[in-house]
Amino acid sequence: MSILYRSDAPRAAAWVRYFAEHAPDLDFRVWPDAGDLAEVEYLIAWQAPAEFIARLPRLKVFFSSGAGVDHVDFSALPGHVPIVRMVEPGIINGMVEYVSLAVLALHRDFFDYMAAKAARIWDPLEVPPASARTIGVMGMGALGCAVLERLASYGFNLRGWNRSPREIEGVESFAGPDQLQPFLAGCDVLICLLPLTAATRGILNRELFSLLPAGAALINVGRGPHLVDADLLEALDSGRLSRAILDVTEPEPLPADHPFWAHPRVFLTPHVASMTQPESAAPILLENVRRHQRGEPLADVIDRCRGY
Ligand code: GLV
């Protein structure tokens, strides 16, 4: 029984250690030291290039090494091979930390104070309570729900928007295209945690920004192509939006001449909001392999038609 890991090389050793200790019966291999590819039944990878997948005739399950699967070429994977996304506590905690930090930095005016410090200006702003702000999360999946739960602990007003209805205690929920407008109308801070699909590509655009309260802020931790860059710049420059915190861009890395770099109200990080942590991901992936071996349904299988 062979598993091949073909992803982030620096973290491979931790995966190898975990499997050696907890699943010595499984032959865990790390690319490029992969042995006979015809023996590989499980693949852990970020991408599925067709010419590589064609060399794995006995592949049974494709495990994405990340939470998103938008970069995976589904057509390269035979229909009988389930595609499993990465849902694990490490990736969830990372996202919760990043988004909490971003929301609190906006709430407590840290970006204004950074500018004020640079200009040596001592100018205390009002300090409204968290309950005076409404934070909206687009995408109420595993990450979105965990983020909402943590933000609730600070006392923010919370709302969520999802393709299909989701109920979370203490969160005002909106679903589907018809409820997007009322959802947006109340968001002081909008967080994008949507999967990237044909339906969500370019969703953060001029029209959407026009439906937010004037002066709202955007946090994009989804994917770069969710955002129409020119529309964001226009919304920031006209004052419709106050700030944007972006962890993802299109393309990545962002070219050095892109206007986001120099924009005073865009804060950028290089796609680091959250990462798979081998220590917490390996046990979950192993449990899924065991399920498969026992003939039980796998957890976190994506729906190829839906795209996530
Ligand atoms: C990172 O962006 C991931 O999808 O895990």
Major sheet: 7 strands, parallel
- Can you tell me the CATH architecture of the largest domain? 3-Layer(aba) Sandwich
Strand content: 15-25%
Order of helices and strands: EHEEHEEHHEHEEHEHEHEHEH
Main sheet: strand order: 8-7-6-9-10-11-12
Q: What is the number of domains?
A: 2
Shape: elongated
SSE class: alpha/beta
What's the mean pLDDT score?
97
The beta-strand count equals 12
Hetero compounds: glyoxylic acid
Write down the CATH class of the largest domain: Alpha Beta
Low-confidence stretches: none
CATH topology of the largest domain: Rossmann fold
Secondary structure tally, helices = 10
Distance between the termini: 28 Å
CATH superfamily of the largest domain: NAD(P)-binding Rossmann-like Domain
Helix fraction, binned, reads: 25-40%
Q: What's the alpha carbon Rg, rounded to whole Å?
A: 21 Å
Organism: Cupriavidus taiwanensis
GO molecular function: glyoxylate reductase (NADPH) activity; hydroxypyruvate reductase [NAD(P)H] activity; NAD binding
Family: Belongs to the D-isomer specific 2-hydroxyacid dehydrogenase family.
Domain D-isomer specific 2-hydroxyacid dehydrogenase catalytic: 37-301
Features:
seven-stranded parallel beta sheet, five-stranded parallel beta sheet, binds glyoxylic acid, 10 helices, glyoxylate reductase (NADPH) activity, elongated, alpha/beta, 2 domains, 18% strand, Rossmann fold, 308 residues
